[in-house]
Specification:
Layout lengths: L6 E3 L5 E3 L11 H12 L5 E2 H8 L7 H16 L12 E4 L2 E4 L7 H12 L4 H12 L14 H27 L3 H14 L4 H13 L3 H19 L5 H11 L12 H16 L6 H14 L3 H20 L3 H9 L13 H17 L6 H14 L7 H16 L2 H13 L8 H18 L2 H17 L3 H18 L4 H15 L5 H13 L7 H4 L2 H12 L16 H11 L3 H10 L9 H15 L2 H11 L6 E2 L9 E2 H14 L5
Antiparallel strand pairs: 1-2, 3-5, 4-5, 6-7
Helix pairs in contact: 1-3, 2-3, 4-5, 4-6, 5-6, 6-7, 6-8, 7-8, 8-9, 8-10, 9-10, 12-13, 13-14, 13-15, 14-15, 14-16, 15-16, 16-17, 16-18, 17-18, 18-19, 19-20, 20-21, 20-22, 21-22, 22-23, 23-25, 26-27, 26-28, 27-28, 28-29, 28-30, 29-30
């Protein structure tokens, strides 16, 4: 301090301490008010006239003299040893007013600001120590007895905001150190006392999740959402929304912290790799592909990033002109796929083209395993198309894998075979066989991710065949394996399956099933699977309403995604626009060869039945006949239109009665 060893506290009631740390008698409330007003000014001069206005709503006639009296008394209290008639060194007169010339570290609020700023740049352990010390300086509300005075209000609120920020910074540091329990204890009080701070809710939910209390974490986020909506009429910000989605998906990154063992090992190995492997080494490309494969199964932004960087890695490998290297980079991305619609067709086309070029460049002899992986990749990345190359590539990949007796390669090839097992409707039994082989093969050889895939394939196939007892078994097995191998995306599919089961078995009223589908749709938020997510919820609700003969009422701006052509005729019919519906039906293409082809054919048939469109009914009957023993759409494991046989019976009746146009 400049000249005088005095300290001042405003993080609570306004106080001054002497060099021994004892409180100084500041006389009455007006004296403390003058001192507090000068501290707020942060060393700047406060004119006497301003002090008068700030101290009194209706100043007395001798207000200026009273202020001077208060200042004189404060000077005696703060500098009791100052000789008579010598200038004050602490509370000084300057021009028209007074200023407090205290050093920055003499005021607890200034020290607190500096500590919080510094803590933000420190390692977690040091940050916790620094912040706990700084938070210990608080004795109550800032400028406690003057907090609502106009001159103190802004500063008091600024300091309060800084304290709340410090609590949250400390919580982040505790989480980084793996001390989630301690963080949760602090944050409960924070969120209860200051319910509008979304970051406090976010950190509390994260802390609860990391202590293994996932349900409590979700409850916190839902309470925050309700509070914000009811009291402020606003939706949660992106931080809360993304955390809720990540918790629902059990995103891997939620359990990571800089202080935990896994994080430490990762940082050390990554640093060693960077030091050891040359930046231009080809080994980096193959290492990157392995990392992208692991990143893809985390879902969310990880899946999106993996797809994007995969294309870049393939392009980089091709630039090097080494076909064998390029084959390894392409083939190493053996990420299991369960959904038959591509997330990014353009990226997939790039990969297919590169795989075809690489196949041509590889020598005819040798490289059989690499060729099989390239062929499997082509089959996987051309799924849902009408190209003959996809099924052909899948067959070739499977033949090579069986000949080489390579379990991992065969699992990849079986995934490709599954994706090309949609030549026509009614192939659920064949897919059930593929799923069974995947489960047995993977369990035998420790291929955990492909074992999960096998159970999901079996779940879909048994659902299509109405065998929900078996489907339940596979859902439970997939969830157990997903928890063991940290595969959060599995919960999206098993979560939707639970609603499909509720729907198909008639165990709940339509309104309850609709609400369950709405909840299931939340699982897709941020999952990184647009090929699955877009249009799925309205399609599920449309199938539900059509099956129960309810009006298919939807908002005009409903995003039907790729399913718009099959929904449009029914929506137009509901609006009484029959001629437009007939035109839309004539323009409706045959459904793609995928998991939803039976459901989309049934929707087409329902519109054709209403319109009496004989040619369309004939086509629909021929397409659906092989699936007579299946539930339409249930092979997706997500939704259903009920028994295909019921749709076939309605078509046959209409065609036989002559109640259709010729």
């Amino acid at each position: 301090m400049e000249g005088v060893g005095r300290a001042f506290g405003v993080l609570g009631p306004v106080v001054a301490w002497d060099t021994g740390g004892d409180a100084i008698d500041l006389k009455g409330p007006r004296h403390r008010s003058v001192l507090a007003r000068l501290i707020v000014a942060r060393g700047h001069v406060v004119p006497v006239s301003r002090l008068v206005d700030d101290l009194w709503t209706d100043p007395p006639a001798d207000a200026v003299g009273a202020v001077r009296t208060f200042v004189a008394a404060l000077r005696r209290a703060l500098e009791p040893d100052r000789p008579p008639r010598t200038p004050a060194r602490l509370l000084v007169t300057d021009g028209p007013g007074y200023a407090l010339r205290a050093a920055k570290d003499a005021v607890d609020a200034r020290r607190f600001e500096e500590a919080v700023t510094a803590a933000a740049t420190l390692p977690p352990r040091e940050a916790v120590v620094r912040l706990e010390e700084a938070l210990g300086w608080w004795r109550g509300p800032a400028y406690a007895e003057f907090a609502e005075q106009a001159w103190a209000r802004t500063e008091s609120r600024r300091l309060t905001e800084l304290r709340l920020h410090a609590v949250e910074l400390r919580a982040e540091a505790l989480l980084a150190l793996g001390l989630a329990d301690r963080a949760a204890a602090d944050l409960r009080a924070q969120s209860a006392e200051h319910p509008w701070r979304e970051n406090a809710w976010r950190l509390l939910a994260l802390a609860l999740y990391r202590t293994g209390r996932q349900a409590d974490a979700l409850d916190v986020l839902r309470r925050a959402r309700a509070l914000l909506a009811e009291e402020l009429g606003i939706d949660p910000g992106p931080g809360l929304r993304s955390l809720e989605a990540d918790i629902l998906h059990q995103a891997d990154h939620l359990g990571q912290a800089r202080g935990n063992p896994a994080g430490r090992v990762w940082e050390q190995v990554a640093a060693a790799y960077d030091r050891t492997v040359a930046p231009d080494a080809r080994a980096r490309l193959e290492s990157t592909t392995g990392l992208l494969r692991d990143l893809a199964v985390t879902g969310g932004s990880g899946l999106l990033a993996a797809r994007e960087h995969r294309v870049a890695a393939v392009a980089a490998a091709e630039e090097l002109g080494d076909a064998a290297l390029t084959a390894r980079v392409i083939g190493a991305y053996d990420v299991p796929a369960i959904w038959t619609r591509l997330d990014d067709p353009e990226q997939a086309a790039h990969v297919v083209a590169a795989a075809e070029r690489t196949l041509t460049a590889l020598s005819a002899e040798g490289h059989q395993a690499a060729r099989a992986r390239l062929l499997a990749t082509i089959a996987l990345e051309s799924r849902g198309t009408l190209l003959a190359r996809g099924p052909q590539a899948a067959r070739q990949a499977e033949e090579i894998a069986r000949r080489l007796d390579d379990p991992a390669l065969l699992a990849f090839a079986l995934n490709a075979a599954f994706m090309q097992c949609f030549d026509h409707a009614g192939l659920a039994p064949r897919r059930a066989e593929i799923g069974a082989e995947l489960v047995a093969l993977s369990a035998r050889h420790g291929l955990g991710t492909f074992e999960v895939l096998g159970h999901l394939v079996r779940l879909q196939a048994r659902s299509a065949l109405g065998d929900f007892t078996a489907a339940d078994h596979h859902a439970a097995a997939a969830d157990a394996l997903a928890a063991r191998h940290e595969r959060p995306l599995v919960g999206v599919f098993t979560g939707w399956y639970a609603v499909l089961r509720l729907d198909a078995t008639g165990q709940a009223p339509v309104t309850e099933v609709e609400a369950a589908y709405q909840d299931a749709a939340a699982l897709l938020n941020g999952a990184g699977m647009p090929g699955l997510a877009r249009g799925l919820l309205p399609l599920a609700l449309l199938c539900l309403r059509v099956r129960h003969a309810l009006p298919p009422r939807f908002d005009d701006d409903t995003d039907w995604g790729p399913y718009a052509p099959w929904a449009r005729p029914l929506l137009l019919l509901d609006q009484g626009r029959r001629s437009e519906a007939a035109e839309a039906l004539h323009a409706t293409p045959d459904p793609p060869r995928d998991l939803l082809q039976e459901a989309l054919w049934c929707l087409t048939a329902r519109a054709a039945l209403t319109l009496g469109d004989r040619p369309t009914l004939v086509r629909a009957h021929a397409a659906l006949a092989p699936a007579a023993n299946e539930l339409a759409g249930a092979g997706s494991g997500l939704l259903t239109l009920g028994p295909v046989s019921a749709c076939l019976d309605d078509i046959a009746t209409a065609l036989g009665s002559g109640a259709v146009d010729n």
